[in-house]
């Protein structure tokens, strides 16, 4: 593979770190007090899921998320942080990529009718998929330094 400035593995590391920074920004701009104390994030998602055209989304959300809104708020917020840190530092990178891919696909399905969000979720999922397939932890990562994966 011919590349400019960096090796192919290093360009993949740039892509991985950029995706990690995107996740960290998603975590940073969340109103954590609203999510944790007032339940705003899960309440908003419940409203979206309740009006969803697909019964599987309505039913799945009602069974999995709605009965435990406080726990799910912490899961979502801290999953975004963990994914972002894992990708930026290249630590447990395949796990972070799979977690990010799953979270983006869940967001994509939940908000399938909100086109403003779909580009972001689709692109983040695509980057996760490519970074996973290309093993983007080969360069500039703790995984590589520690001999993991």
In short:
By secondary structure, the protein is mainly α. It has eight helices and no strands.
Primary descriptors:
149 residues
Word description of this protein:
This protein is an all-alpha fold. The protein is built from eight helices and no strands. The protein has helices at 8-28, 32-38, 40-50, 55-64, 69-89, 93-110, 115-133, 142-146. Helix 2 runs antiparallel to helix 5. The mean pLDDT is 93.
Please state the oligomeric state of the protein chains shown: single chain
Q: State the helical fraction.
A: over 70%
Radius of gyration: 17 Å
Helical stretch tally: 8
How many distinct beta strands?
0
Low-confidence stretches: none
Strand content: under 5%
**Could you give the distance between the termini?**
22 Å
Report the order of strands and helices.
HHHHHHHH
Overall 3D shape:
elongated
SSE order and pairing:
Layout: H1 8-28, H2 32-38, H3 40-50, H4 55-64, H5 69-89, H6 93-110, H7 115-133, H8 142-146
């Amino acid at each position: 593979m011919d590349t400019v400035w960096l090796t192919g593995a290093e360009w993949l590391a740039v892509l991985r770190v950029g995706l990690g920074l995107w996740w960290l920004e998603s975590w940073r701009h969340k109103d954590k007090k609203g999510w944790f104390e007032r339940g705003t994030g899960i309440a908003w998602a419940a409203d979206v899921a309740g009006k969803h055209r697909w019964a599987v989304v309505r039913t799945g959300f009602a069974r999995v998320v709605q009965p435990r809104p406080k726990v799910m708020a912490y899961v979502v917020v801290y999953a975004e942080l963990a994914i972002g840190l894992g990708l930026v530092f290249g630590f447990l990178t395949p796990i972070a990529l799979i977690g990010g891919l799953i979270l983006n696909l869940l967001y994509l399905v939940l908000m399938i009718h909100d086109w403003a969000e779909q580009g972001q979720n689709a692109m983040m999922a695509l980057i996760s998929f490519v970074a996973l397939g290309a093993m983007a932890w080969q360069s500039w990562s703790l995984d590589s330094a520690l001999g993991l994966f």
